[in-house]
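Quick one - inputs below.
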Amino acid sequence: MTRAAWTFLKLAAAAAIAAFVALAPASAGDAPLPEVPKAAAGTQCVREPEFMRRNHMTMFKHKRDMTVHDGDRTPEFSLKECVTCHAVPGADGQAVKVSDPKHFCRSCHDYAAVKVDCFECHASRPEKTGAAFLDNPHDADVAALSAYLKGAAQ
Amino acid sequence: MSCGTGSCSCKTSEPGIDAGRRAFLKSGGAFTTVALTSTVTLMAFGEAEAAPQAALNAKARWGMLIDVAKCGDGCDACVTACRTENGWAEPKNLATDAQWIRKVTLTDPKSGASKSLPVMCQHCASAPCTDVCPTGASFKRADGIVLVDKHLCIGCRYCMMACPYKARSFIHEALEDQKPHAPRGMGTVESCTMCVHRVDAGQIPACVESCAATGGGAMMFGDLNDPNSDIAKRVAELSATQIRADLGVDPGVHYVNL
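Output:
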C-alpha cells in the first residue's frame, strides 16, 4: 500500500467515525418530551408549574385526608379541580377519560412510567363535560361555594 | 474506628471539640428559639386563614327520621335518587352488586299486614364496622357520619360481616365515569355516605330531598344533637325507635310507626 493510499484510508476512517458520532444522539432514540395539554383558558393554577410538577402528589395526599375526614371541600389542591381545569377535549368534543393517552395526567405519567392510582376510584373527567363546560368550568362550583360560605358566615 | 483502640487523636483534641460543640449548641439553641417562634407565628396565621373553610360541624350528629306510615309500598324514590346522586347502577346480581339503600318489606305472617321502609347505613354512634376495620379505613366523622376512607381500604370486607344492617357493598369490578363527588372503585367497600358532599355544602341528602319531592315525605334529616332541631323534637315526641336497638350501637337513623 502506498503512503498516499494509507493516508486516504485513515482520513476515510476518521470521517466515518465523526459521522457516526454526529449521528449517534439521533439514532440512539431519545424519548420525545411529553406534550402536556394546556389548561382551560382563563384558569389559574394554585401554584407555579415547577412546584406542581414536584409536589402535586404530596398536596393531594394532604388534602385527601382533610377532605375525607374533616369535610374540607375547598377547591385548592382538590383532585376534582385539577381534573376540571385540565380537561382535554377529545375528538367528540367531550373531555377525554384517563384511558385516552391524551389525558392531562397521562401525558406526563406515561413519560415518567409512574402509575396513577387516583382514577381507579376518582372520576378522570368533569361530570359536566362537553364544549360549553370546557369554556367556563368554574361558574357553577364558584356560585355554590360562595353561597355556602355566605350562609356559614351568618 | 473507635477511640478505644488508642490509634485516634480524640483524647488530645477533646477540649477543643468540646468548646466548639458547646459554642455550636449554644448557637443552635438560639436558632431553635427563633425557628420555633417563626413556626408558631406561621401556624397561627395558617389556622386563622383555614378556620372559615372547615365544613365539618363537630358539634352536630347528623341523623334521619323515617316515618314508615308515610313510606309507600311501591315507592323507591329514595333509592333512585341515591343511585343518580352517587352513580351506582341498579343491582342485577343482588349477591354482588352495590346497594347503598334498599326498600325492605316486613310482613307479619299472622295478620298479613306489611310495611315498607328504606334501610341504608344507619350511621351508628358505636359502629361495629369501625371497630373491626384493620386499617382505620372505616371511621366515624366528628359529626356522626360513618364513612369508608377508600385510600386506606384494603377490601378485606370485615366491616361487611360486622354490620348488623347489611349496609355495605364491595366493588368487584373496575369502574369508570364515577361521579366526581362520590369516588368509588374496585377492591374497596362502600356504603351510604349520608350524602356527605351535600351535607358539607349545607344541603340535605338526595334521598330525603327526593322523598319530599316525589315520595311520601317520610324522611327527615337533621342534627340529633341540637335539641331545637325539628328532627330532635320529633324523635322525642314520637318516641322513635331504631332498628335492632337491642344491639346498643345507637344508630343515627330513627324510625317511627315501625
